[in-house]
Write a structure and sequence with these properties.
There is one protein chain. The protein has one helix and eight strands. The chain is mostly beta strands.
Length: about 90
């Protein structure tokens, strides 16, 4: 399956176990130099594509992805265990 990054980032992530909508993919983690996707980054509650600050994001392991459809990505994971602090951003002067 070939998918562009822009297409992947337009999909909504839904947890199969709980039916919870985690949000839209905002970024991915890559393993270099292989170029393999290791995780999907989804802004957590209170964040909107990085514009409104929240405390945590979802970092969903790519191994948890069960199905990638035209509009959604189904994952099998515990949303609470996927939460990770998004870290401090550098503020530009």
């Amino acid at each position: 399956m070939n998918t562009k990054m822009s297409e992947l980032c337009a999909k909504e992530v839904i947890c199969l176990d709980t039916g919870q909508r985690l949000g839209l993919v905002a970024d991915v983690l890559l393993q270099l130099p292989e170029g393999k996707i290791t995780a999907l980054i989804v802004p957590g509650p209170g964040r909107c594509m990085g514009l409104i600050e929240g405390k945590e994001d979802y970092c969903v392991p790519f191994s948890a992805v069960k199905k990638i459809g035209p509009e959604i990505i189904l994952v099998e994971c515990d949303p609470d265990s996927c939460r990770t602090p998004h870290g401090n951003r550098r503020k530009r002067p």
